[in-house]
Specification:
The complex is a heterodimer.
Chain A lengths: L1 E10 L2 E11 L4 E5 L6 H8 L7 E6 L2 E2 L7 H6 L1 E4 L11 H13 L3 H14 L15 H13 L5 E5 L7 H16 L3 E5 L3 H7 L2 E6 L2 E6 L1 H6 L4 H10 L1
Helix pairs in contact in A: 3-4, 3-5, 4-5, 5-6
Chain B lengths: L8 H6 L1 H33 L4 H15 L3 H17 L5 H26 L3 H9 L4 H31 L11 H12 L3 H29 L5 H5 L6
Helix pairs in contact in B: 2-3, 2-5, 2-7, 2-8, 3-5, 4-5, 5-7, 6-7, 7-9, 8-9
Classes of the chains: A alpha/beta, B mainly alpha.
GO molecular function (chain A): ABC-type amino acid transporter activity; ATP binding; ATP hydrolysis activity
Membrane topology (chain A): Peripheral membrane protein
GO cellular component, one term (chain A): plasma membrane
């Protein structure tokens, strides 16, 4: 599904990713953990080219993302993304947030788009908020709308960039529950997160990043119970 | 304060047609200059947000040039040098006047548009692009609708400034309000009456425009929260 080869990313003189190799299979749920500044978010943002790739290659479904001949917009329609800060469109009602891209890009008509949107909003438990504006919603509700918005494009992969880090503690669970449900339904997911409980319970594989490298990866049970690398041990020791 | 009792308003009345024409001309100058300036300004402003150097630099040079020199000088250069050089003849003072106001206000509007666009959080563009929208679609559907609300107040100020600045085209003998005043002053060698009349006319026009701008602001510069709208709160 996703294949990443020798991925490098530098910001000016700072090298954030120093050669990442990684493959993500269909229906796999991968959680990326690691200390801040380890490059996890940058890694995720390189997958759908929100960050320009300095060197190396990313393939999604066989197409090379960072090839000038590839239409990146087509690829992005297949890759949903959820951001730490939700980034809902504040000038649109909740339902318009969800229907905008399918109507504009998939060219489906308004009625079909709204039916689909209401279904998705029901799925994230927010059908009754469809005609509210984002500002009227709590953080957790906004993030669930953001997930519905991404799902409206019927993506093959979902990328989550610390989706619960900007939330009040009591709202974290409602978002994680939606993500768990998605994972159960077989969505391919890459989740950058600090929620170790979620990673342990839901992930098929956990990737530990530090200093721009993938230091260690494996089953959640292996990583959390029996980490091999010293840096993994130190990191988990601090947070668990 | 004797002069106040010796004012001869009859001379203004005698020239009322000239003043009425002047009001009309001032309105035409301002409205045409503003509409043209906004349209041209959008493109300049977008150009100034471009990452492509060959788009950015000409736009920046243009804006710096027109904001860095007096409008009066620009009017003279455009009417006496630029237009005759391009077309081989003058195309009339009205054409030159409107052209100068468009070119000048576009530079100021460009900065308003640039600042408005850049004030929108980068996450908005990223969210739109991650859904598969092109840069243009993201601009039209997500960035500009939000930026526009923030641009309304400064664009309103620009309209009022342009209304007053339009009086400078008198220097190439466009028959606007100030021109009418000057004709009357020359004919009677009296200065209080005609220039005071001109000042009052501009004051009335700017007052009307101020009210108009305030209305547009209330109408468009709203918070996205419908509950707050009813209380008339303005945008964040």
């Amino acid at each position: 599904m996703i294949k990443i080869e020798n991925l490098h990313k530098t910001f000016g003189k700072l090298e954030v990713l120093k050669g990442i190799d990684c493959e993500i299979k269909e229906k796999e749920v991968v959680c990326v953990i690691g200390p801040s500044g380890s490059g996890k978010s940058t890694f995720l943002r390189c997958i759908n080219l929100l960050e320009e790739i300095t060197d190396g290659a990313v393939y999604i479904g066989g197409a090379q993302v960072n090839d000038l001949k590839t239409n990146i917009n087509d690829i992005r329609t297949e890759v949903g993304m959820v951001f730490q800060q939700f980034n809902l469109f504040p000038h649109m009602s909740v339902i318009d947030n969800v229907t905008m891209a399918p109507m504009l890009i998939r060219k489906i008509n308004k009625k079909a788009a709204e039916e689909q949107a209401l279904e998705l909003l029901a799925k994230v438990g927010l059908k009754e908020k469809a005609y509210n504006y984002p500002q009227q919603l709590s953080g957790g509700q906004q993030q669930r709308v953001a997930i519905a918005r991404a799902l409206a494009m019927k993506p093959k992969v979902m990328l989550f960039d610390e989706p619960t880090s900007a939330l009040d503690p009591e709202m974290v669970q409602e978002v994680l529950d939606v993500m768990k449900q998605l994972a159960k339904e077989g969505m391919t997911m890459v989740v950058v997160t600090h929620e170790m409980g979620f990673a342990r319970e839901v992930a098929d594989r956990v990737i530990f990043m530090d200093g721009g490298y993938i230091v260690e990866q494996g089953l959640p049970s292996e990583i959390f119970s029996n980490p091999q690398n010293d840096r993994t041990k130190a990191f988990l020791g601090k947070i668990l | 304060m004797d002069f106040l009792f010796n004012l001869r308003w009859d001379i203004i009345w005698n020239y009322r047609d000239l003043f009425l024409q002047g009001i009309w001309i001032t309105i035409v100058l301002t409205v045409c200059g503003y509409i043209g300036g906004v349209i041209f300004g959008v493109f300049l402003g977008l150009g100034k947000t471009s990452k492509r150097k060959w788009i950015y630099w000409p736009c920046k040079l243009y804006v710096d040039l027109f904001r860095g020199t007096p409008l009066l000088v620009q009017i003279l250069i455009i009417h006496l040098a630029l237009i005759p050089s391009i077309f081989g003849q003058s195309l009339g003072v009205m054409f030159s006047g409107i052209a100068a106001l468009i070119l000048n206000s576009a530079a100021y509007n460009a900065e308003i548009f640039r600042a408005g666009i850049e004030s929108i959080d980068k996450g908005q563009t990223e969210a739109a692009r991650s859904l598969g929208l092109t840069q243009g679609q993201a601009m039209r559907k997500v960035i500009l609708p939000q930026a526009f609300r923030r641009m309304v107040p400064p664009l309103g100020n620009e309209f009022i400034a342009l209304l007053k600045d339009s009086s400078l085209v008198m220097v190439i003998a466009v028959n606007d309000i100030l021109y009418a005043a000057k004709v009357v002053a020359g004919a009677y060698q009296r200065f209080w009456e005609p220039y005071l009349t001109a000042a009052v006319l501009y004051l009335v026009l700017t007052y009307v425009v101020t009210k108009l701008v305030a209305y547009v602001e209330r109408r468009f510069s709203i918070d996205y929260n419908p509950r707050k709208n009813k209380e008339g709160r303005v945008a964040r």
